[in-house]
Write the structure tokens for this entry.
Amino acid sequence: MITKTGQQILSELRSEQLMAISDKKWWFVFKDVGTIPHFLYKLCLEFGKSIFVYSTTILILLIATSNEHSINLLLSKPISGIIEFKAELIYLVISLTIIYLCFYSFYYWNKYISNKKKHQIDNKRFYHEQRMQIELIEEVLYRHQLINRKD
């Protein structure tokens, strides 16, 4: 049998626990929703970086490996050959960028899944701790004879 004061205390504790759990749940939801714009921002940033890095790397490699013979060979070719060569280099840069972005997306997704599992474990631990606190408070209320219970 629970006294009126004990009943009020227990109902307040339960409502506080439910509010804490719902706050925690909304925190997880907002954290989940926040990852989409963050992912798109990072994807665009990585796209820009990879286009710059791969095109600069190819340009540096072409300059580093060019000699007088290769420059004369390029100059002796018609303009259409040079344009085709440039188009092939652009295609190579775009292909490398797409491959890099696929790997980056996979990495980001894997990190997202592991973080979500970690948050779920944290949420379960939080719920368990809340439950233990309520049980402890119920025990204290029982000792002070604010509630009566049957064991």
